[in-house]
């Protein structure tokens, strides 16, 4: 599905020569990510932008079938492309579980079981909290150190031109420079229901929609990949946006 940007107001714009490819909420769907990489590569080979930036909006892990391979693909991509990796609420929660394995119970309900399985660590039902914490320690021992480093080094936001990239959204009425990380990673209703401008055009994920929404003040590109099989790619150049 292709959706073009709204036309009823002045369009946000990137600096001349910059093209951004944005992807949100991969959730362990490595096979879909590989497909999007192929689309990006073909587009770049065909049009050769002066400067391309690939921006990933967080939630790389949990729920889907292959978090491990997803992180492998992203890390490999970072070695040969200009990439920006933002933090999602799933990465924030997972890194907190690594620090405190006693928090594993909620993470397991949050999609963590699938992440563990992708690393070859399986959990039987009915485990005690202590047994769940032991599984997290086992997971930590088998995870590649570069995966843990990647998850701990994620940034909360990225700004380019008139665009502000973030995982979940922003709290209306608060300057972008003063936003709390908890809102950047978790906010929903207050942000989604707001019709006001936020200082920049916000590109986000976090709340699944049937197809990408390119609205007057924000774009939501989380199309629920792990549940729908649809991972959306947003291409931005100048004042043009295209969601595929």
UniProtKB/TrEMBL annotation:
What GO molecular function terms would the record report? Answer: bis(5'-nucleosyl)-tetraphosphatase (symmetrical) activity; phosphatase activity
Q: Which InterPro entries would you find in this protein's record?
A: Ap4A_hydrolase, Calcineurin-like_PHP, Metallo-depent_PP-like
A Pfam cross-reference name = Metallophos
Listed under GO biological process in this entry are: RNA decapping
Quote a single Gene Ontology cellular component term: cytoplasm
Q: Where's the Calcineurin-like phosphoesterase domain?
A: 19-209
**Know the name of this protein?**
Serine/threonine protein phosphatase 1
